[in-house]
Amino acid sequence: MDNPGTSLIHPSSPPFIQPLNQFDLTLIERVREELVLRGINPPSWREADPEKRRRFFDEVRSILIDQGEDRIAVNRNAQIITDALSGVGLLDQLLRDPYVEEIFVRNGVVAVEYDGSFYHLGKLADDRYFENLAVHVADQGGATLRGDRPAVLIDLPGGERFTAIVPRLSTEGTAINIRTFGRRVRTLEEMEQTGTFTKINPSDLEVVQTFAINSEKSTGSESSRRFQSLQNTPDRFLAWMVSTLSGSLMIAGEMGSGKTTLLNALSGFLPVSAPIAALETFRELEIQHPFLLRTVAPAELSPGTPGVTLDWVLNVIYTRMNPAAILVGEVVGNEALQFLKATCLGRKALTTIHGGTIEEALMRLEQLALAAAPELGLAAVRSMVAMGLDVVALMGRVNRSGRIQRTLQAIATIKGIDATGNYRLDYLYRAEGEQNTPVFKLAYQQMEGMK
């Protein structure tokens, strides 16, 4: 697959976005009215054919020329109008940039998180423009943003998450956030070079060689080459674990900490000779595997809504379709219980979950499972976690000289339950602290015992 994220040359700043003035807003409305008169409809918001959008752009351009628009500015204005009527307005310009990680709008002022840094782009349009934009996106997504529904959460066609809150719930104008996912698929090698994994020098280098030898026995030559090219023991360990399907892994972290990025990168080490299944509540994973069963289903369904939920699909897949490994994009609801049931039946599974620490992530997994089946009780759910889940990796957001960097913070194995009913966690790695000496030889022995 194409991987636009292999370049390590980072742009210095986000693109310049020319603000919309009153003339632009008037022009948009004027062309909108002309399109209605001519019976020309904008392409559907979820239209996947770029040719239809290009033809609409040409229709808008033709109207502008007919109306005597300055030919020097006609292309720019046609693009503004096309975006306004068929996309997410001037924010489309930001969505086209692969380094934009999140877009923020507050009362007409726009900012972005761009390749790890936060930038103010200034006031790009009147707040009314963005309120109309939010209403338009909600309508296109089949939702409502009016009256007693002053907030909306919509998945954009490209997989981005669009959230908007409008007055009077928002007291300082319209607020919009757009989170982007998976537009730059990053490999472990790139993540190493950009500082995701702290460089360490373990005292026993034979451990690293052991990982490489075992990986070479169980994977193809390309995976072996990539494995041995990795420079840092923490990601070598995770890559070895995935390539040998030696256990079930949960990647934890706060929002925007790089959980999905790491899961995507690790998927490149899944054995190509094994059938893999991937399940998500919305599409954000970029799985690097040639034989993949992929499903997208909601965590919940409103009463009376037809369809199936993620936990139902997960149950069908692990009990009937015999995957060698299951990837769950993120555990967010009742599927947590099915995830644990799958791991307790011997299925190898990988997922992500929110949590500021490894302990918090495990607590959240327990809470989600108990919400699905409260009659089980905490002790039973905790036993399932300890039995089925092998390793938890923690990602974090670290501010380094004003730039947000996503880094691996810790790796721990779960070694059962102690006499007080708590998890026995063995921390194999921590990013900082003298007491956090990596013990990968022990980790390898433990993982060998799980196979």
Protein traits:
single chain, 451 residues, Rossmann fold, eight-stranded mixed sheet, six-stranded antiparallel sheet, 14 strands, 21% strand, disordered N terminus
Question: Major sheet: order of its strands?
Answer: 9-8-10-11-7-12-13-14
What is the CA-CA span between the terminal residues? 31 Å
CATH architecture of the largest domain: 3-Layer(aba) Sandwich
Helix tally equals 15
Which runs of at least 5 residues are low in confidence (pLDDT < 50)? 1-8, 202-219, 433-441
Secondary structural class: alpha/beta
Order of helices and strands: HHHHEEEHEEEHHHHEHEEHEHEHHEEEH
What is the CATH topology descriptor of the largest domain? Rossmann fold
CATH top level assignment of the largest domain: Alpha Beta
* Largest β sheet strand count, sense and barrel closure: 8 strands, mixed
How many distinct folded domains? 2
Overall pLDDT: 83
CATH superfamily descriptor of the largest domain: P-loop containing nucleotide triphosphate hydrolases
Beta-strand percent range: 15-25%
Say how many strands there are.
14
Rg to the nearest angstrom?
A: 25 Å
Q: Indicate the overall shape.
A: elongated
Specify the helix fraction band.
Answer: 25-40%
